[in-house]
Every structure is written in C-alpha cells, then in structure tokens.
Amino acid sequence: MTDYDVVVVGAGPAGSIAAKTAAEKGLDVLLIEKRQEIGVPVRCAEGVSREGLEKFVNPDSKWIASEIENAEIISPSNHKVVLSAENAGNEVGYVLERKIFDRYLARLASKAGADVLTKTSAVSFKRENGTVKLGIRSMGEFSEITAKIVIGADGVESRVAKWAGIDTTLKLNEIESCVQYLMTNIEFDDDTTYFWVGRKYAPGGYIWLFPKGKDAANVGIGVMPSLAEKSAKWYLDRFVEEHFPEGEIVEVVVGGVPVKGAIDTAVADNVMLAGDAARHTDPITGGGIINAMSAGHHAAIAAYEAIKAKDYSKETLKRYDEKWKSDFGESLVRNKKLQEKMMRLDDPTLDRLAKSLEGMPIEEMSVRRLAFELFKKHPRLLWDLREFIV
Amino acid sequence: MKKLIVNRYRCGYCGACVAVCKFNANELVETYLEIYEDKCTLCQACVRTCPMNALEVVE
C-alpha cells in the first residue's frame, strides 16, 4: 500500500512534463506508462513549433531530426502556397525523433524525483475518503495505491477520463484517422514541410510530408471518418503510388488524432486530464505536443496548489481549466471553427484560394497567418469567421 | 450471431477505435486490442474510424 500525492497515467509529453513539474514542486509523484518502452510505438508526425518547444527544453540534436524553414501547401490542381519562417509564430520548426524525445522527458521527470514504472497500466479507479484508490498492474502484478490526485495523460484512448466521469468520447467528425510511412528513396527539400489538401487527397484532412534528415521523411495522412469512404491507409497508398512510386516504406505509424476543439472541462474530483486525453490537439494542424506539455505543466501547478490547500475537489482543480483555456483553449475553438469551414470547401474552391496566394511571400508558418491572408483576398468567403481571424 | 472482430495482422494498435466507442466495449492493453462483446452494440463507429481497416462485423 503506497501513497502518492500525484499519480500520472501515461508517459508522453503531457505526462512526463506533469510528473517533472509536480516533482520539482516537492510532491510525491508516480509516473506510470502501460508500454514496456516509453515512446514506442510512435503515433505522431513529429512536428513541433520551435518557440513552443524551447519554453520547456533546450533543443538537443539527439532528438531533433530536422529543422524546418518553409511550409508548402499544395491544392488539388497543384497550386502552391509557400509559408516561410522569417518571423516568429511558426507551427513547425522542428521535426522530432519522438522515440528518443519521449524517453528524454521521462528521464527529466525521474531526475526531478518522480518514481517511474513502465509496463504498468492503471486498471481500476475508485474514490474513497476524498482520495483515489488506483489499481495498477505492473509487469503482471496487481496492486492498489492511494493518490490524492490522478493526472490522466493516457492518450487518445484515455481510460482515466471514463473512470472520472468526464465524457470525452469522440464523434466521427471529431477524430482524424491517421497512417504514416517513414519513406526513403523519395525527393523532397529537407528544410520544407509539405501539405496536400483537398477531398481528392484526404477527405476531411490532409496529407503531409515531414523531413527526417536528408534521406527519409514521414509521409502521412489524416482523414475524417464521417467523410471518408475508405480507410486512411487506402488513401495514403493511392497517393504514395502516384507521387513516390520508387519510395521504400521503412516504418509504419498509425494513430487517431482528436480534433474536437476545446472540451468543457478537463477536471473532476481528484482528476485532471492533459494532452490527447483532454483532446488538447489542434483541430487544423493535428499538432498536440506543445499543448500537451503546457497542459501537463498547468495540471502539475494546479495539483501543487490543491495539495497545499488539502482540497482535491473539482471546484479547486477548476483552476487548471482556467489555465489551459487561457493558454491555448481559444486557439482550439478558433481552429475547430476554421476546420469546419475548410471541410465545406470543395476542391475547385481550394484551388481558387491557393491560386490567389500562389507566389506571394508569406513570412510566417502559421494557420492564423494563412487564414488572415486568405481573408484579405476573399473576405466574403470567410466573413463568418472574421472574429477568429482578424 | 453478428460480432465485431479485429484482424490482428492489420491492427496498428493506435487506440482510435477506443476513442470513438461510446460503450466502453474495447480497450488497448499495451499493444493488444481487447473487444468486450457483451458491451458492443455493433454500431460500427470503430469500423469506420480504423486507419488500417482492421475491424469488421461478421456473422
């Protein structure tokens, strides 16, 4: 029978930063990860914004695969819009090596004083006398631990959310179904990310290419199940056959990316959710790493304050909701609206939009800037979104 | 008797099917997808979501 102030479920970016921050605050912290190896299987396209990342860690060549200067957006009829990183605010500045990055973050958590257990799942949850009895199965052995606070950073398939009574079930228009191949023998500029948009390529999503060094790139797709007639893999295979017939696939990555926008609340008595579990992923880009790390940090601070006050109720933990909402909640809401709008545009319209920005220098790689440039050219088309853009 | 089955040779154990299940009829245990037939309503949300086309309802 062990007692912890905080048990963090899931050792991805949200969980490891939460555990690290809580341990630095002097709390007794346990970080558990159901997989035997942290960071694999990867379920990610691995792009992050430079500034976002540098808020938390010093970039290290051990886990940075590429540095990105340009983003090229390609419409169904091959019109190209190029965004380049002259200014701040870039959405993808680095492509990470998540297998290494995630382990690095977990080690930071353990260095800060958190206990870490891998091949350890949370299997049961009950509230008792104001705390939580959490059943865990560690390397096949069941035990029960008591935690004042549980941080659910357990990914898209979060169990903690369900136990806590926070309904985060995704509808078929709130998830991107994704497959990605790590490919060699293909042509690309190694400082550029590529995005193919349009129903022709990916109904309700897009196809991406993110360089990983000079010789290989993540080529992946996200499609929305409510719109797609076939599986994500089918659309990706068709694209790869057409664009990279000589390419070799050396790794396969699969994932579901939440694109729900902001949930009402990520807290319940004794529980906070962070990262994919809290649907903190950006609905347009599908990027979730920086929001996850930010959320983990906010959750740990809220846990520290709650433990100091000896009050782990939903009411107290609501501070965490306020924190993540004021940090990035607004952009989740904005980008969900924008995504819904984008999905209604047919391919000829996307072509028209891309053509109008073709050859124009846009010196910032961000959705917001892109939306702003489009709005200037086509105010009527995007008029109902002006409050989110201007 | 219809039931939901997973083709383990196709499954990429990503958890997308768990995220869309309203009935808690599935769970990702490390890399093994468990399906709880007693809870499954055959609504097929997971079938439509699976990136790898690894799920199907069979007689």
From TrEMBL, chain A:
<dbReference type="GO" id="GO:0045550">
    <property type="term" value="F:geranylgeranyl reductase activity"/>
</dbReference>
<keyword id="KW-0594">Phospholipid biosynthesis</keyword>
<dbReference type="Pfam" id="PF22578">
    <property type="entry name" value="GGR_cat"/>
</dbReference>
<protein>
    <recommendedName>
        <fullName>Digeranylgeranylglycerophospholipid reductase</fullName>
        <ecNumber>1.3.-.-</ecNumber>
    </recommendedName>
</protein>
<dbReference type="GO" id="GO:0016020">
    <property type="term" value="C:membrane"/>
</dbReference>
<feature type="binding site">
    <location>
        <position position="98"/>
    </location>
    <ligand>
        <name>FAD</name>
    </ligand>
</feature>
<feature type="binding site">
    <location>
        <position position="289"/>
    </location>
    <ligand>
        <name>FAD</name>
    </ligand>
</feature>
<keyword id="KW-0443">Lipid metabolism</keyword>
<dbReference type="InterPro" id="IPR036188">
    <property type="entry name" value="FAD/NAD-bd_sf"/>
</dbReference>
<feature type="binding site">
    <location>
        <position position="45"/>
    </location>
    <ligand>
        <name>FAD</name>
    </ligand>
</feature>
<feature type="binding site">
    <location>
        <position position="14"/>
    </location>
    <ligand>
        <name>FAD</name>
    </ligand>
</feature>
<keyword id="KW-0285">Flavoprotein</keyword>
<feature type="domain" description="FAD-dependent oxidoreductase 2 FAD-binding">
    <location>
        <begin position="5"/>
        <end position="47"/>
    </location>
</feature>
<feature type="binding site">
    <location>
        <position position="33"/>
    </location>
    <ligand>
        <name>FAD</name>
    </ligand>
</feature>
<keyword id="KW-0560">Oxidoreductase</keyword>
<dbReference type="GO" id="GO:0046474">
    <property type="term" value="P:glycerophospholipid biosynthetic process"/>
</dbReference>
<dbReference type="GO" id="GO:0046467">
    <property type="term" value="P:membrane lipid biosynthetic process"/>
</dbReference>
<dbReference type="InterPro" id="IPR003953">
    <property type="entry name" value="FAD-dep_OxRdtase_2_FAD-bd"/>
</dbReference>
<comment type="function">
    <text>Is involved in the reduction of 2,3-digeranylgeranylglycerophospholipids (unsaturated archaeols) into 2,3-diphytanylglycerophospholipids (saturated archaeols) in the biosynthesis of archaeal membrane lipids. Catalyzes the formation of archaetidic acid (2,3-di-O-phytanyl-sn-glyceryl phosphate) from 2,3-di-O-geranylgeranylglyceryl phosphate (DGGGP) via the hydrogenation of each double bond of the isoprenoid chains.</text>
</comment>
<feature type="binding site">
    <location>
        <position position="367"/>
    </location>
    <ligand>
        <name>a 2,3-bis-O-(geranylgeranyl)-sn-glycerol 1-phospholipid</name>
    </ligand>
</feature>
<feature type="binding site">
    <location>
        <position position="122"/>
    </location>
    <ligand>
        <name>FAD</name>
    </ligand>
</feature>
<comment type="similarity">
    <text>Belongs to the geranylgeranyl reductase family. DGGGPL reductase subfamily.</text>
</comment>
Automatic annotation (TrEMBL), chain B:
<protein>
    <submittedName>
        <fullName>4Fe-4S binding protein</fullName>
    </submittedName>
</protein>
<dbReference type="Pfam" id="PF00037">
    <property type="entry name" value="Fer4"/>
</dbReference>
<feature type="domain" description="4Fe-4S ferredoxin-type">
    <location>
        <begin position="2"/>
        <end position="30"/>
    </location>
</feature>
<dbReference type="GO" id="GO:0016491">
    <property type="term" value="F:oxidoreductase activity"/>
</dbReference>
<dbReference type="InterPro" id="IPR017900">
    <property type="entry name" value="4Fe4S_Fe_S_CS"/>
</dbReference>
<feature type="domain" description="4Fe-4S ferredoxin-type">
    <location>
        <begin position="31"/>
        <end position="59"/>
    </location>
</feature>
<dbReference type="InterPro" id="IPR017896">
    <property type="entry name" value="4Fe4S_Fe-S-bd"/>
</dbReference>
